[in-house]
Amino acid sequence: MATVELLFSALPEHVRTARLVAAAVARRAGVDEAVLDEVRLAVGEACSRAVGLHITHEVATPVRVTLIEEEKKFSIEVGDDAPRPAPLDLASANGSERPAPGHEDPGADSEDDMGLAVISGLVDDVEVTADERGGLIRMSWPIAPATVAS
Amino acid sequence: MDLSLSTETVGDRTVVRVGGEIDVYTAPKLREQLVELVNDGSYHLVVDMEGVDFLDSTGLGVLVGGLKRVRAHEGSLRLVCNQERILKIFRITGLTKVFPIHTSVEDAVQATD
């Protein structure tokens, strides 16, 4: 199981770097060219969300991106160290759950919801979880069968 | 690639040509441009996205914000986009029902409904 790990300070200008690295590793792993745009967009959304959470909660640690090449699939994990309770349930992305009243920044929440909505619309295999450290978005794509080199 | 912005007045419309990547880093520049135009009295905007290589939800949020601002003045915000990968993001989020999306700037400038 080959992995590439990327840590970056929670700054918006680094999200593009994460997109480029993720797309490059996905291409090398054998993810279909037609899907690479989706990989780029999904990882960008997950990283933007993590950066936003770190900035909002003044978390000094970096955002973590892990790119995992397995036999039949390619997975990306984006982890943040932001304290809960940020709305992490994908159900909140389609508006069925709203953040608690009195939340400090409703504008940030709506963008956060839109990011999750885009991820859930793009990626079939996506899991959003949280642990004592923070939140984790895990996304997977199938790897195209290897073609015989000519 | 960074974000490039230029504006041009065509009749009563203001065409904003956007190039490059609209993401969490560059979207504030587009927001500033749209806010400035509305503050200066340009209420009928055409955002030409043919030169956009990448658009994420932050960019969508800025466009929705722009739409809200021009609508407050009974204005309009039309998009020009033929790129499938960009159009897909509007479809996923249901925003194709919110924005009039045209295939050319000429078409968008002449549109009235």
UniProtKB/TrEMBL annotation, chain A:
<protein>
    <submittedName>
        <fullName>Anti-sigma regulatory factor</fullName>
    </submittedName>
</protein>
<keyword id="KW-0808">Transferase</keyword>
<dbReference type="InterPro" id="IPR050267">
    <property type="entry name" value="Anti-sigma-factor_SerPK"/>
</dbReference>
<dbReference type="InterPro" id="IPR003594">
    <property type="entry name" value="HATPase_dom"/>
</dbReference>
<feature type="region of interest" description="Disordered">
    <location>
        <begin position="78"/>
        <end position="113"/>
    </location>
</feature>
<keyword id="KW-0723">Serine/threonine-protein kinase</keyword>
<feature type="domain" description="Histidine kinase/HSP90-like ATPase">
    <location>
        <begin position="8"/>
        <end position="141"/>
    </location>
</feature>
<keyword id="KW-0418">Kinase</keyword>
<dbReference type="Pfam" id="PF13581">
    <property type="entry name" value="HATPase_c_2"/>
</dbReference>
<dbReference type="GO" id="GO:0004674">
    <property type="term" value="F:protein serine/threonine kinase activity"/>
</dbReference>
<dbReference type="InterPro" id="IPR036890">
    <property type="entry name" value="HATPase_C_sf"/>
</dbReference>
From TrEMBL, chain B:
<dbReference type="InterPro" id="IPR003658">
    <property type="entry name" value="Anti-sigma_ant"/>
</dbReference>
<comment type="similarity">
    <text>Belongs to the anti-sigma-factor antagonist family.</text>
</comment>
<dbReference type="InterPro" id="IPR002645">
    <property type="entry name" value="STAS_dom"/>
</dbReference>
<protein>
    <recommendedName>
        <fullName>Anti-sigma factor antagonist</fullName>
    </recommendedName>
</protein>
<feature type="domain" description="STAS">
    <location>
        <begin position="3"/>
        <end position="112"/>
    </location>
</feature>
<dbReference type="InterPro" id="IPR036513">
    <property type="entry name" value="STAS_dom_sf"/>
</dbReference>
<dbReference type="GO" id="GO:0043856">
    <property type="term" value="F:anti-sigma factor antagonist activity"/>
</dbReference>
<dbReference type="Pfam" id="PF01740">
    <property type="entry name" value="STAS"/>
</dbReference>
<comment type="function">
    <text>Positive regulator of sigma-B activity. Non-phosphorylated RsbV binds to RsbW, preventing its association with sigma-B. When phosphorylated, releases RsbW, which is then free to complex with and inactivate sigma-B.</text>
</comment>
<keyword id="KW-0597">Phosphoprotein</keyword>
